[in-house]
Design goal:
This protein has one domain (33-298). It has 302 residues and is mainly α. It has helices spanning 10-23, 35-44, 46-60, 70-89, 99-120, 128-133, 140-166, 178-202, 206-219, 227-233, 238-246, 248-260, 273-293. The N and C termini lie far apart (50 Å).
Length: 302
């Protein structure tokens, strides 16, 4: 006696459910949206990005007795240490006019770029609870980190202006160029933060490597010494000279120095610097955003 077996209807049933979901606009949970839709969703949450960045900035030093004074104290302490080591001991100040303004301007800009890249490596991985619990564009996390650091930079810029005035710098129309220079640096930093956020989300150990990478990058960015003086010696390989000139951190530092320091007049800025600054901002900003978006559905898994 044979027993009749009921036909398997599960595939057909699944197909019916898929058509029903599509008809009512339902999508797979965690699926990557199209790039235009992703941009629209991110823009719709711009207030969350700003509020989250502000809350993080207020909480960063909430347990310290001096509170947000450390926003100003940290780069100033770094400047004092670097001035002693490089300016006095290693004599990097020789041949560099207005070395103290030269140094502190470079440190303030570098501190923003390096902090953005470093924080980007942990932007997703350190917020896995938020990523797994809520649906929102994950790019909000590295972008909010850069917004937070940019807010801190603007606070620090007030101290930088006071220091520049104290060391004899005269405000002029060229100081207005500092704003577009900072905005371009922020776009570049945001792109780098998104790249590192994707890398760090799958490889958390990258955050342990970043201090060594950033230290090497800092020494090659002319923060404490003049790249122009090194290039004028003409004893370096050609590719090294090109790399130093094209270094994006050095480009943004140069823009700020030529905007703010009297002995580096803005009209004497090499013609290639502004196009390179715009190019790096577009390359890192757009490329980093697309690179991060392509892994949107993978964040929070594993």
């Amino acid at each position: 006696m044979t027993t009749a077996t009921a036909p398997k209807t599960e595939p057909a049933h699944s197909a019916d459910l898929a058509r029903l979901a599509a008809a009512h606009g339902l999508t797979l949970s965690g699926a990557r949206p199209t790039l235009p839709r992703y941009i629209a969703e991110l823009w719709a949450r711009r207030h969350f990005v700003a509020a989250y960045a502000t809350a993080r900035m207020q909480a960063t030093y909430s347990t310290a007795k001096l509170g947000q004074v450390w926003h100003l104290a940290t780069p100033l302490l770094n400047a004092a240490v670097y001035y002693f080591i490089f300016g006095i001991v290693m004599k990097a100040s020789h041949g560099v006019p207005d070395y103290v303004p030269f140094l502190i301007t470079g440190i303030f800009v570098w501190d923003f770029i390096s902090s953005s890249v470093n924080a980007g490596t942990r932007a997703v991985h350190s917020n896995l609870g938020l990523v797994r619990a809520l649906h929102f564009p994950r790019a909000s996390l590295p972008i909010s980190t850069v917004v937070q650091l940019f807010q801190q930079l603007l606070v620090s810029m007030a101290a930088l202006v006071v220091l520049l005035l104290a060391f004899g710098q005269t405000p002029g129309p060229s100081w207005l160029l500092a704003l577009p220079a900072l905005l371009l640096a922020a776009v570049f930093a945001a792109g780098c933060a998104m790249i590192m956020a994707r890398v760090g989300s799958r490889n958390p150990d990258v955050s342990q490597l970043m201090p060594f990478v950033l230290r090497t990058w800092m020494y090659s960015s002319g923060v404490m010494w003049s790249i122009d003086q090194v290039l004028s010696t003409d004893h370096l390989p050609h590719w090294v000279m090109l790399a130093l000139k094209a270094n994006p951190a050095a480009v943004y530092i140069d823009l700020m120095r030529f905007a703010l320091i009297d002995s580096f007049p803005a009209h004497a800025l090499p013609h290639h610097v502004w196009p390179m600054a715009i190019g790096w901002a577009l390359l890192a900003g757009v490329g980093g955003f697309v690179y991060f978006w392509k892994a949107e559905e993978a964040y929070g898994r594993g």
